[in-house]
Every structure is written in C-alpha cells, then in structure tokens.
Amino acid sequence: ASSNGRNGAAKSLGVRRGVRGNFVPPVRFNGGSTSGAAAAPRQQHGGENGVEDSTKKCLELLVGPDGELPERLRNLEPKLIEHVSNEIMEQDPNVRWDDIAGLEHAKKCVTEMVIWPLLRPDIFQGCRAPGKGLLLFGPPGTGKTMIGKAIAGEARATFFSISASSLTSKWIGEGEKLVRALFGVASCRQPAVIFIDEVDSLLSQRKAEGEHESSRRLKTQFLIEMEGCGSGTEQILLIGATNRPQELDEAARRRLSKRLYIPLPSAAARAWIVRSLLNKDGLMTLSDDEVETICTRTDGYSGSDMKNLVKEASMGPLREALTQGKDISKISNDEMRSISLQDFMSALQQVRASVSQHELGLYEDWNKQFGSLA
Ligand code: ADP
C-alpha cells in the first residue's frame, strides 16, 4: 500500500514543491545532525544539509499545511523520525476481525471502546469519551498482536507497532527520544493505534537494582506521552500487550484502563484455525469428525501452537513422498497424498501445548483482580 492508502493521505497535503515538482524541504533540521541515532537502518545518498534522501521523504510526509514540521517533531533527530516512519509504522497490517478465531468478548469490547470512537470521535465525547489505553493480556500466541492489527484495519487508523523490549535493549540511551518520535509521528498520522508488545518490560513494577538512569527516564517519558495521548482532540489509542500482567505497576494499570483477558482458544476456535489454515492452501481434506478429534486432543493449545501443529502435519505427505524416492527438486503438489488425521496424530508428538495449567491459573487470578470482565 502506498502512503496514500486508507490512512491519511491528507497528512501529506500542503507540502511545498519547487518548480518541476521537486521537493523543497520546508523543514528546519536543527543543524542537520544525523549522527548519534542508534538506528541508521540503511545508508542512502546524502542530500543537502547532511540529511539523507530517504529521511527527507519521511519528513516530507509529516509537514503540516503551513509547510512546517509539527512543533513536537522539530527537536528530534530526523533519523529517529525516519526509523519510526519506516520500521515501526505499518501501512496496512492486513488483518481483519474475520481472520481471528473466537475471542468474541474481546472483539465486542474493542469495537465499542476503540473502533467506534475512532470512527466517530464527535459522538464519543464527554461521558462517552473512550479510555486512553487498552491492555491485552494472556498467554503467548493467543492473538493479541492480531487484535492490535485488526483494530488498526477496522478503524482505518495508522498502525505503529513496537516491542518494548527492543526499546529497552536495542535502544539503550536512545529509547526516550524514540518514544517521543513515536508519539510525535503518531500525532501527525491520526487516527493512530500504537501497539506496544511486551509492555511489561517497559512499565514493570520491579525496581531493578541499579535500574539505569536511562531506563527510568524512558519509563517516565513513556508515562508522560501516554497521559497526553487520547486527551483533547488527539485520536491516538495506546494498546499494550503482555504475557506477564503481574509485572505491571499501579501507574501502568491506571493508564491502561481497559484490561482484556485474551485466553486460549476454545475447541471451536481451534477447529476454525485448522480449517482456515488448510483451506487457505487448498489442503483441507479432513472430515468434520477428524477435525473434532484433533480438537479434543489439543486442549490447552494456543492459537500459535495450533498453527505450528498444522505446519508440522502438513510436512507428513512431503516427508513420505521423499522417503518413497521422489526428488525434492522436482516434486509437485499432485505427487503428494493429502494431509490425514494420522499426520496430525504424529504432529501432536512434536508440537506440545506451550502454556502450563499453572500459568493459566495465574492469568485467571489476575483477570479476576484487575481485568475488565464480561
Ligand atoms: P500474541 O498473543 O503472542 O500476540 P499473535 O497474535 O502474534 O499472538 O499470534 C501468533 C500467531 O498465532 C498468529 O499469527 C496466528 O497465526 C495464530 N493465532 C493466534 N491466535 C489466533 C486466533 N485467535 N485466531 C487465529 N489465529 C491465531
């Protein structure tokens, strides 16, 4: 999708153009320093002011109708803004509600709390003003990231996705600035959804001994930005996802005011995942009874465990054909038998449930204490 896709072509209007349509940077680059940014994802030819062409293109899309870069972006290093635009912002996450199995409760809450307000900000004011932040918590591989992407898709919002652990590890010392760039770019790209995976690693209540000054500053900056987003007329929704909700402190819980438990898939949802993955590849030849057998044998499997199971099972026919002497460089799909229940039974030996009963109990306890219950 081009940057003029569903999400905000209007934001690129107002760019000043020179004769013959060449872009004239209307932006003050504050000395044009591109050094020091931990992220210089790729080197491109340098342009005027020492600002590379790729960076200029990103800035071009962010200038306002007055031809200036918005105030809050002006003091940030162009490279950081570029990193947010290129690596963190996704043009079209390409996930819809219909791609997500089960989770009806979560979908209903999210539609009301997030999608309607993003679509109709005029109605969702005052008493109906939506919460600022949403927390999706639960075992890994249950669809939290998918929900984040689907929200952006359904609400026709720009989607920003970043893992909090990359902020704390990869961006040592730079994380705070990156957070400012992230929220700054999001404010130029409204409506926007900012999805923070592993949010616990950023907003943990653990006072790590010798907690670095920089990570403390990062956390503070993040909380400040969160406080600001969604206030006034800003249409930025923050979604945090975590497999370790117990780690979140009180300040984080307060800001992520809606907290939805994303549980393991039900048997029906597991069946749906198996069917849809096989159908997608034209490989669905199992009977209803066989699918049901798979479902009864996969109690406790997450959505991503199910995906791995299907992958493993789908290798059965290929492995068999190869042991029968077929040549991997020449074999075609017609030379393989269809996937059978037996393939799934063998795959079950390889792919086990990744979440333990004990862990599930902890999620349920936390949900009772802090979750937004049905
Ligand atoms: P997490 O909860 O860890 O964010 P993801 O949303 O990244 O999990 O899911 C990982 C993968 O598992 C997805 O790409 C998808 O293939 C599969 N999956 C997980 N949950 C579901 C679901 N409810 N419906 C369909 N697929 C799912």
Automatic annotation (TrEMBL):
Leader peptide range in chain numbering: none
Region (Disordered): 1-53
The AAA+ ATPase domain, residue ranges: 130-266
Family membership noted in the UniProt record: Belongs to the AAA ATPase family.
Name listed for the protein in its UniProt record: AAA+ ATPase domain-containing protein
